[in-house]
Write a structure and sequence with these properties.
Elements: H1 2-11, H2 20-32, E1 40-41, H3 57-61, H4 63-75, H5 81-103, E2 106-107, H6 120-131, H7 141-155, H8 164-183, H9 189-209, H10 211-224
Parallel strand pairs: 1-2
Helix pairs in contact: 2-5, 4-5, 4-7, 5-7, 7-8, 7-9
Length: 225
């Protein structure tokens, strides 16, 4: 068993990049405990037209396995380039969101004071409300990371992720997760728009400038010398 673990890490040196995740998680927990006396209230009139629907909590929480599924798949591949890109593109951008929240405190006042129904989905919403404050919402990390994950699926070199069923499932999840944030009143439409504006330069940076690929290719040239 120990030898198998050693072999796994020896053949997959990219595993070290997982350290980005606990950095993000620690930052998220810390910033959720920061109490801003004043913050920008995110709101657009269209928010009032979107009804509260507790059943959208299902795609909302599917965000977590959606992120994890691609991460675990790439972790177990011996070619570490896409796993590096996953960690720094996805979780690196979420860390940038946390920094933005500190620089520009924001929140929303869209949550219903009393949930209109009492069922399993509504109780899940209440639990999410209790665990996650109504601050630090712009840009929406749910929308930003969902777009990034789907972009990585589309750009991946792995045949498994090229399957139509996988890509269709990824697209459906990305869309449902992105709209769910409005129906469970976790975000304003403004937060979703901001996520798109964040996504564009980050995507261009990681796929046009390609810092991960450049570093790995430079490392390979150094080894060959």
């Amino acid at each position: 068993m120990i030898n198998a673990v050693k072999t796994f890490f020896k053949t997959r040196p990219h595993c070290w990049a997982v350290v980005v995740f606990p950095v993000y998680l620690a930052g998220f927990i810390l910033i959720e405990h920061v109490k801003f006396e004043q913050y920008y209230v995110c709101y657009l009139p269209v928010d009032d037209l979107i009804p509260f629907c507790e059943w959208f909590i299902i795609p909302y929480v599917l965000w977590y396995p959606y992120l994890a599924a691609l991460g675990f798949f790439l972790l177990f591949q011996k070619d570490g380039e896409e796993f590096y890109r996953y960690m720094f593109f996805v979780f690196g951008s979420l860390i940038l969101c946390l920094i933005f929240y500190l620089i520009f405190p924001n929140g929303q006042d869209l949550r219903p004071e009393v949930l209109p129904r009492d069922n399993l989905a509504a109780r899940a919403v209440a639990w999410i409300y209790a665990a996650d404050t109504n601050t630090n919402v712009l840009p929406s990390m749910h929308v930003l990371a969902s777009m990034e994950i789907h972009a990585m699926v589309l750009k991946s070199r792995y045949a498994f992720l090229h399957k139509k069923g996988i890509r269709a499932l990824s697209l459906i999840l990305a869309v449902l997760i992105s709209v769910s944030i409005f129906f469970v009143k976790q975000h304003s439409v403004l937060d979703g728009i901001a996520a798109i504006l964040f996504f564009i330069p980050l995507y261009l940076f990681f796929y046009r400038f390609d810092p991960v690929g450049r570093v790995l290719r430079r490392r390979e040239k150094t080894r060959d010398l």
